[in-house]
Amino acid sequence: MTLDILFQDEYLVAVNKPAGLLVHRTYLAKDEEDAVVQRLRDQTGKWVFPVHRLDRGTSGVLIMAFNPEVARLLSTQFAESKTQKTYHCLVRGFRCFSRQLSPKLLSSFFVLLWI
């Protein structure tokens, strides 16, 4: 199954990672052989290097570099919070608080809502 490529140039590729797919193989999921790295390598014919990752259960834009130096430079920007990220969440139910959560609070905690 091919990945939806959102952007590609000579240095990097951005794909829409579906929920349920690993970014790369890991010993934590020994029996799972399907991952974005392998699919994208097969799809583009080039080696790819993750710049960041998304949890297996998370869907969203994932950036991969075509060489390790670009991956390292971009990963450093992510680590130093020099990138801007926007998160969207779909929920079902009702909101139990009357005001918006502050970005500081959101960056400090994960809030899981079970409805």
Walk me through this protein's architecture.
With 115 residues, the protein is an alpha+beta fold. Helix content is 23%, strand content 17%. It is built from 3 helices and 4 strands. A 4-stranded antiparallel β-sheet has the order 1-2-4-3. β1 and β2 form a beta hairpin.
In short:
23% of the residues lie in helices and 17% in strands. The protein is of the alpha+beta class and 115 residues long. Mean pLDDT is 81; it is low at 108-115.
Which word captures the global form?
globular
Using only CA atoms, what is the Rg? Answer: 16 Å
Low-confidence spans: 108-115
- Give the count of helical stretches: 3
Amino- and carboxy-terminal Cα gap: 32 Å
Strand content: 15-25%
Helix fraction by DSSP (H/I, runs of at least 4): 10-25%
Secondary-structure element order, N to C: EEHEEHH
Strand neighbour order, sheet with most strands: 1-2-4-3
Mean pLDDT rating: 81
Structural class: alpha+beta
Note the main sheet. Answer: 4 strands, antiparallel
**Oligomer kind:** single chain
* Quantity of strands, as a count: 4
SSE inventory with pairings:
Elements: E1 4-8, E2 12-17, H1 36-44, E3 49-50, E4 60-65, H2 68-79, H3 103-108
Antiparallel strand pairs: 1-2, 2-4, 3-4
Can you tag this structure with a few keywords?
alpha+beta; 4 strands; 115 residues; 23% helix; 3 helices; single chain
